[in-house]
Amino acid sequence: MSEKSTSESLAAIVIANRVLGLFSDEAKSCMSELLRRREDDGDPFEFEKYIDDQIGAIETRNEESRKDNVLMTFLSSLSSVRKSL
């Protein structure tokens, strides 16, 4: 990974790997670079927390989306029942 990549962009590759299963080799390189930056350069970026927080936010949005879909399906079925009465 490039030295010019931000720590957030490196973490985004890791997140894509964990959530979508993409970029496996790149995600390993990104984690290595994030760790190197912390140990060698003193980068204060808390990448583990950032990654966990972002994944948690994605999971929350997905759960909310699923609930919305269930609600819309239910309301749609009520509308169909009402029309048949």
Task: Using brief descriptors, characterize the structure shown.
85 residues, mainly alpha, 82% helix, 0% strand, elongated
Q: Can you describe this structure?
A:
- With 85 residues, the protein is an all-alpha fold.
- The protein has one domain.
- The protein is 82% helix and 0% strand.
- Helix 1 packs antiparallel against helix 2 and helix 1 crosses helix 3.
- The longest helix has 38 residues, at 47-84.
- The protein is elongated, with a radius of gyration of 20 Å.
Brief digest:
Helices cover 82% and strands 0% of the residues. It contains 3 helices and no strands.
Shape assignment:
elongated
The helix/strand class is mainly alpha
Structural domains: how many: 1
N-end to C-end Cα span:
63 Å
Main sheet, how many strands, which sense, barrel?
none
Low-confidence stretches: none
Mean pLDDT score: 87
Number of helices: 3
* Strand percent estimate: under 5%
Number of strands: 0
What percentage of residues falls in helices of 4 or more residues?
A: over 70%
Rg of Cα set: 20 Å
N-to-C SSE string, H for helix and E for strand: HHH
Helix-strand blueprint:
Layout: H1 7-20, H2 24-41, H3 47-84
Helix pairs in contact: 1-2, 1-3
